[in-house]
Amino acid sequence: MTRAVGVLPPRRRAALLGAAAEEFARAGYERASLNRVIRGQGMSKSSFYHYFASKEELFDAVVEDLAQAAAAALGAPPPEALAEGDFWSGVGDLTARLARIAREEPDAMRFAALFYLSDAPAGAPLAAVRAAVDAWIDRALEVGRAGGAVGDGLPLALQRHLAKAVVWAMDEWTVANAADLAAPELAGLPEVQLDALRRLLAA
């Protein structure tokens, strides 16, 4: 399909991507209604296809915008910074910051919902974000092992697999159940996640 070449004015683009983010997060990718998004913005289909070649291209634009906003809000340090102080305190600070952003920034929770969509297309923006998260975890484990905060009794590849399984499973569960959790329960989840990681990985 030929790529669309039009450029939406910034305000209209932000409104369209915001509506699309809501729709994708609520319904998933496959069941999301492009027609509902377009109608809600007062656009015709022909007008939409002037700016986006497909539903998937719209999804990729939503992911890219939300990922940039989430990264800016989080301000995650490079993994090497964890070697400068207490490793696990640094990890705890990061998990607490993630939880705070999720509570205070609606776009962060929308992004998390898209990140864990089981039917999301494997487009470049989402794949890049997932690869970046994996790479950060990989490097953080290496830093922790080098400093003695993470045990070396297991192969590094297995530690990576276990750490990602814990982090992703707890985050995905939180996203799916956030609306049913009381504020104190949500606030306590980062500590639970940190404790699980320490039990699994600490020296």
UniProtKB/TrEMBL annotation:
SUPFAM superfamilies: Homeodomain-like. InterPro entries: Homeodomain-like_sf, HTH-type_TetR-like_transc_reg, HTH_TetR. Residues 33-52 bind DNA. Pfam families: TetR_N. Keywords: DNA-binding, Transcription, Transcription regulation. One of its GO terms (molecular function) is transcription cis-regulatory region binding. Residues 10-70 form the HTH tetR-type domain. This is Transcriptional regulator, TetR family. It comes from Glycomyces sambucus.
